[in-house]
Amino acid sequence: MFCLFLRSTRYYQVALAVYVFSKSRPGADTLYLAVFMFLSGILKYGERTWALKCASMDNLRSSMVTTPDPGPNYAKFMEEYRFTREAGLQAEIVIEPERRTGVTTAAIAEETVPYATVITEALCFFVTFKRLFVNLILSFQDRTGSQATFLRLMPEQAYKIIEIELSLMYDTLHSKAAVIHTWYGRLFRCFTLVSTTTACVLFNVLHKGRPGGIDVAITNLLFGGALCLELSAIGMMLVSYWTYAALEGSICHSLSHLILRCLKYFRPESRARWSNSMAQHNLISFCLQDRPTLVTKILKLLGLKGHWDSWLYIWHIDVSSELKTLVFRELKDKAVSIIDTESYRKFSNHRGQWALQCKGYYKELGWSVEVEFDESILLWHIATDLCLYSDDSSDDAKLSEYVSISRAVSNYMLFLLVARPFMLTAGIGQIRFGDTYAEAKNFFAREMTRPDERSAAMMVLEVNAEITPRDVKGDRSKSVPFDACRLAKSLLELQPGKRWRLIRVVWVEMLCYAASNCRSNFHAKQLSNGGELLTVVWFLMTHLGMGEQYRIESGHARAKLIVEKN
Q1: Using DSSP, how many helices (H) and how many strands (E) does the chain show?
Q2: φ/ψ bin of 479: left (φ > 0), alpha (ψ from -120 to 50), beta (otherwise)
Q3: How many CB atoms lie within 10 A of CB 80?
Q4: Are 481 and 460 in contact, with CB atoms under 8 Å apart?
Q5: Greater model confidence, 108 or 129
Q6: How does residue 144 score in pLDDT terms, banded at 50, 70 and 90?
Q7: Is 342 exposed, middle or buried (0-12, 13-18, 19+ CB in 10 A)?
Q8: Among the listed residues 319, 55, 316, the one whose alpha carbon sits nearest the alpha carbon of residue 170
Q9: pLDDT score of 346
Q10: Residue 393 in 3-state DSSP?
Q11: Whole-angstrom Cα distance, residue 543 to residue 143?
Q12: What would the pLDDT profile of 420-456 be if each residue is shown by its tens digit?
């Protein structure tokens, strides 16, 4: 509907421009110039309208749906089998599954590959894995091919492939790339440049020798701006991954090498192709800093308090290379340890259970990950902060890294719960967060006038939580601060090294669970905002073979009818 509205609006604008120009009674010389400029403008309007159509999800899905596959002729085969048995012959059906090549994951050494190889691999994978955004399925051949590449890459280059893929997907959904990087799109670009240049030259030829004025100067200035825009558009079209992909497999090797050198200069491997940041929100800090004032009361009446809180209490940090490496290693270890196809799908349903079982703490702490997902996030978020403020400052660099990673993911997951609830599984996360915030704020206000974060954490840990809070309060309120206190006290019984290793892997597993269970249209939506870490993790999981998208695990079976004479 929106595309139809824009299309009709542009038709109206073109018609209006033609009407206004005709009313100005142009001379013959001006008419020739106008024809060239009108042709250029109409082509651009048509290109933009066609790009909007091509970028729609329905159009993308229909363009990627494969030819219907009826499979082997079952009815004919069973008819032959019946006729053979009725003829008194001994018949046996032998099933030969489709041959599949496995990946020997145990002995793959990581290696660094050239940037050109990274770009080529990303362009090849994009053709297949863009289907994720329109909920189309993948096969075991896709998994095998992807694993063969990703299991041998260094983490930095694995993420670079994903960044390029997401950049291409952004171009497809939110720019005119789907039209520009076609033979007719390139032809239109050249035509509009020639048309604008011709109009500019003709204008100056016709006005040569005539007395100039401010009108001529302004017209030349406008022509110069239009030519600069045309040249920059062609430059951006040429120096792109799309153009390199079109030339890389052709006979124009020198031109493809030139494009690659330009890509290395303008889009170096070290530069991130997405925001490379993760938002942060912290419950204890929010409780202590959010105080009622006249401004907040007015904003609440106007319905703007949520926007004010987002601006004031949500901040962003860079995604550290240590966090990226940890996620990659954890997922790679899972991919190597999985021995059957069913386990690939099961892993996406784990949100801390696997980590606790592997570390041997599921019996004591399993209750915290078996509740609803939004409750698990709040429990582990508060417990992470309580453990952080309970630990004495340590000079151990490795332990500090574990703490930093754990808190970064903890704050990011709370941000998703509060500000991006549509990216998590359905639940009552915002209600639970509101109840927890209200109980924590009342508790801090009663115990101390203006506590700092460490004092507030110590106050929570001092509460006797032997009896489950639900048994005392009932289940009307969904707040969880003192359930989190019970979890934190159990974690504090562990040695600091073991404690933070456990906390970080639980958070990584929760992050992966959230990534794989977020709907694809929300991943696509966030690309226009610079991308989310959640989307990057989702793509990484899929490239390593995990998730629900792989629905073809064995292919066509080849049945043979073996007939034996009696």
Answers
A1: 29, 6
A2: beta
A3: 14
A4: yes
A5: 129
A6: confident
A7: exposed
A8: 55
A9: 75
A10: coil
A11: 7
A12: 999 998 888 889 998 998 888 888 887 666 678 888 8
> Token pair of 154, please?
């260094």
Two tokens at 291? 């105080």
Which residue has 């007395």 as its token pair?
A: 211
Radius of gyration of the chain (CA): 31
| Cα(75)–Cα(81) distance, integer angstroms | 10
pLDDT digits over 252-261, tens only? 778 888 888 8
What is the DSSP track for 42-110? HHHHHHHHHHHHHTSHHHHHHHHPPPP---S-HHHHHHHHHHHHHTT-EEEEEEEPPP------TTPPP
Estimate to the nearest angstrom the gap between the alpha carbon of 387 and the chain centroid.
31
Determine the 3-state secondary structure of 139 from DSSP: strand
For CA atoms 136, 140, 143, 144, the dihedral sign is negative
**Pair type for strands 138-139 and 550-552:** parallel
Of 22-31, 125-134, 328-337, minimum mean pLDDT range: 22-31
**Sign of the CA dihedral with 509 first, then 514, 520, and 526 last:** negative
Identify the pLDDT of residue 367.
92
Q: Which residues contact 455 (CB under 8 A, 6 or more apart)?
A: 448
Residue 108 predicted with pLDDT over 90: no
- Banded model confidence at residue 210, pLDDT cuts 50, 70, 90: low
Task: Give burial (CB, 10 Å; 0-12/13-18/19+) of 332.
Answer: buried
CB distance 501 to 477 below 8 Å: no
Residue with tokens 């562990």: 494
SS (H, E, C) 460-523: HHCCCCCCCHHHHHCCCCCCCHHHHHHHHHHHHCCCHHHHHHHHHHHHHHHHHHHHHHCCHHHH
Q: Which amino acid would we find at residue 524?
A: A
